[in-house]
Amino acid sequence: MTVLMIISPKNRPVFEAVIPANSLSERQLILSQLAIFAALDMVDEAMWSSKDLYLKVVDRFNDQSVSAFVTPGNHRFMLLHDARQDDGLKAFFNKLYEFFIKIALNPFYDDEEPIRSKAFSDRVRHLAQEYL
Amino acid sequence: MDRRRKSDGLGPKSTQSFSVLSQPLGNRREVSFSAYALLFSEIVQYSRKRVRSTTGLEEKLNDIGRRVGSRALELVAIREKVPTRSTKVLQILSFVFNPVWKFLFGKQPENLRKVSESESSYFIEERDPLVNTFVSVPEDYGSMNCAAFVAGIIAGVLESAGFPAKVHAYNANDSERTYPPMTLYTIEFSDEVMAREKRPGKRTMLNILFSVGVFMGTFALATNTDTLK
C-alpha cells in the first residue's frame, strides 16, 4: 500500500493517489494523509541543507516510511510506503518529475491548481507498477 | 486487467491517446527570431491598450514575465545533466545568469554584480536585450523599458525557487546615449531570504555544539580537579 501526494509551494495538496486504487478505508486514508502532512515539517528543514532533489526517507510512521522529492520550484512529492522498499524510489520520483513538468508547462495549468488530468493519474499508476 | 492496461497504450510509445505527457522534454528546438519578435510586439500592444500609465505597462509586462519564469525554472533545471535545487542566493543567481539566460535568449548578459551599499541587492547588466531589438520607446514614455518583461521572468524564476525578490529593469547611462543601450536589472531579495541565508548550516551548528560541549567538559574537569585538591 502506497500513498503519493504532491504538495504545492504554498502547502496545498494538488495531487493524491492511493496505489493500488481503493485499497484504503476512509479512516486509513485520513491517517496516511496525516502522516504525510506531519512529514512536511521534516522536508522544510531538510530541503535547505541539501542540493539534491531526492531527499530519501524523511520520516517514519509505524512500520511505514515517508520519502520526499523536492523540485527546483519547491513542489514536494511525498510518498508513504512500506519501510523496506527503496530500490525503485529514486527512478520513480525522477519519472514522476518529468510528467509533472509536462503538466506544469501547460499554459492552461495555473500554479496551486489541483491536477485533474486523467492521463496523468493513469501514468502515475503505471509508473508505480513498474518501479515500486 | 494489468495486461489490458498496458496494451491500452499508457507506455511512452502510445499511439492511441495524444497527450502532452507523451511529448519528450529533452529535445531543444530553436525558435525563429522573427516569430519571437512578432509575439513580443503583440504582447506589448495588448498590454498597452489595457493600462493608463507607463508604470502600469511595466507592471503588466512584469506579470506576464513571471508566468514564463516559473515555468522556465523547472524546464531548464531538468535539462541540466544533474538537476539540483539552489539553496543559496549566489547559486540561484548564477543559475539565472547562465543556464536560464542561455535557454531563453541564447546568450549571456554582460555582468552580475552586487550593490555595495546593500546586503540584499544585486544587479545584472545586459547590453541590448533580445526583447528590445525592435523596440524604440517614444520620447513621451520617459524612461520606460520593455525589458520589464525580462525582469518579470527573473522575478518568476527567483520566486518559485523560494527566493522572493523585487526585480526592476532600468535604462543605464541615460545621459550618455551609448549604443546599443545598456539595461540594468536590479534584484532586491526580501528579508526572509536574507534571514535564511545567514542561518548557519547543519554542519556549522554541529561544530558549535561540539566545541561548546568540549569547553564545558574541560571546565567541569578543571573544577573537579580543583575540588579534589
UniProtKB/TrEMBL annotation, chain A:
GO annotation, cellular component aspect: cytoplasm
One Pfam family linked to the record: Sedlin_N
Transmembrane segments: none
CDD domains assigned: TRAPPC2_sedlin (cd14825)
GO terms (BP aspect): endoplasmic reticulum to Golgi vesicle-mediated transport
InterPro entries linked: Longin-like_dom_sf, Sedlin
PANTHER family per record: TRAFFICKING PROTEIN PARTICLE COMPLEX SUBUNIT 2
Protein name: Trafficking protein particle complex subunit
From TrEMBL, chain B:
GO biological process: endoplasmic reticulum to Golgi vesicle-mediated transport
Main subcellular location of this protein, as a coarse class: endoplasmic reticulum
Highest taxon listed in the record's lineage: Eukaryota
Keywords: Endoplasmic reticulum, ER-Golgi transport, Golgi apparatus, Membrane, Transmembrane, Transmembrane helix, Transport
GO cellular component: endoplasmic reticulum; TRAPPI protein complex; TRAPPII protein complex; TRAPPIII protein complex
SUPFAM superfamilies noted in UniProt: Ligand-binding domain in the NO signalling and Golgi transport
Membrane-spanning segments: 204-223
Cell location: Endoplasmic reticulum; Golgi apparatus, cis-Golgi network
Protein family: Belongs to the TRAPP small subunits family. BET3 subfamily.
Quaternary structure note: Part of the multisubunit TRAPP (transport protein particle) complex.
Protein name as catalogued: Trafficking protein particle complex subunit
